[in-house]
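Please check the following for our workbook:

***
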Amino acid sequence: MPLPCRAARPGCPDGPQLLLTLLGVDAKVGRGNWIVPDTISLIIWLIAGITGGFVVGDFLKGRLDPARNAVVGAVGGVIGAQILQLVIPALRGFDTVSIVGQAIGAAASGVALTVVAGAVLGQRRRRRGGSSSK
């Protein structure tokens, strides 16, 4: 595959489109096809997921430490928001309704993944006889 041009002329990819071209992905960025989330959406998903992970971590009574709550919540928030945007296309974009919907979905996904991770780690600790894996 030839490398894309670097000159500023029509048809020459730049920014995210250049990255996708180098990776071999044929997609239009910023024209309704949201392949790569923009930075602000990603920050919203991370904050909402971390918040959800911390909130439910208080109810899990020490199954996960705060750092794990944050990491699992952040991962759940990003994955959940991506899935939610695929299922409900109206949540794509950058208006008030879509941002609030994405934040709620990311928080709920962060909660869900933190609960699942806490249950799995709690079950593993019970099988090992209560020993901690720290």
Notes: The helical segments are 16-23, 39-59, 66-87, 96-127. The CA atoms of residues 39 and 74 lie 15 Å apart. The chain has a mean pLDDT of 77.
